[in-house]
Amino acid sequence: MELQHRNISFPAAVVLAWLLFLAASRSLARAAVLPPADFSGEELDEPLGGSSSDTPPPKYLSLALLIQREAATLKEELCNKYAVCDNSMEVFVQNSLDLPKIRAEDGCFRSGFKQEKCLKKISSGLAEFQIYLLVVENTFSTEGKLAESLRHKTRHLADVVKLMINPSAVPVTQTDKLELMKGLLSNDPWLQKVSTRLILRDFTLFIEKTIRAIRFLITKRNLEV
């Protein structure tokens, strides 16, 4: 390596070269472990069955896990930067947010598991969350693109799950939710942040139950092979 400045001694040049090598090594290691920034439809278009304990998890399961981590990161940022954690003001907006939830009657639990009914609930719920995630994206408009990334990945996952069942069986997202979103955005900033925390809390719970259902479905399919 040629030195740009002749007045740099040989030992100093060696130290500088070693530091540059360490920095490059760390960058390569970080790039190797980080998940892709986004997923294309082709990457996610794979059959639900055919997985085993010796093979990597399906891409759609990896996507759900990535969504879970990003939502948890946003929740932490909301608490650390805006001090919106557990707050009594939540009760004032609780009744106005009809957020999607996975319940026992949706057939997603081990007891009484019903594949088509469960996937239908997951797909429609993720699609409905798109409206609410726009509120989250607006709240974090100055904190980078993580909230936008979360919404896009959620849409991808909803599309993939929808392909697993009869698409016509998935109800269309209600358009009246748009009016609710406008109302949330028009309120004062503090109330919007409280609403954002509620959305992220329920969204995280929804994704956690989605991950459990997908894992159970993969295990069930493997046992039937």
What does this protein look like?
Helix 3 (59-82) packs antiparallel against helix 8 (189-224), helix 5 packs antiparallel against helix 6 and helix 5 (115-139) packs parallel to helix 7 (177-186). The model is unreliable at 1-8 and 12-55 (pLDDT under 50). The protein is 64% helix and 0% strand. The protein has 225 residues and is mostly helical. The chain folds into 2 domains: 1-34, no CATH class; 39-224, Up-down Bundle (Growth Hormone, Chain: A). It has helices spanning 10-33, 41-44, 59-82, 91-94, 115-139, 146-163, 177-186, 189-224. It is built from 8 helices and no strands. InterPro entries: 4_helix_cytokine-like_core (IPR009079), IL-6-like (IPR003574), IL-6/GCSF/MGF (IPR030474), IL6/GCSF/MGF_CS (IPR030473). This is Interleukin-6.
Offer a few descriptive terms.
elongated; Growth Hormone, Chain: A; 2 domains; 225 residues
How many whole angstroms does the radius of gyration measure? 22 Å
Query: N-to-C terminal Cα separation, in Å?
Result: 58 Å
Query: Can you tell me the CATH architecture of the largest domain?
Result: Up-down Bundle
Number of domains: 2
Task: Write the element-wise H/E pattern from the N-terminal end onward.
Answer: HHHHHHHH
The fraction of residues assigned to DSSP E strands is: under 5%
By CATH, the topology of the largest domain is: Growth Hormone, Chain: A
Choose one word for the global shape. elongated
Estimated structural class: mainly alpha
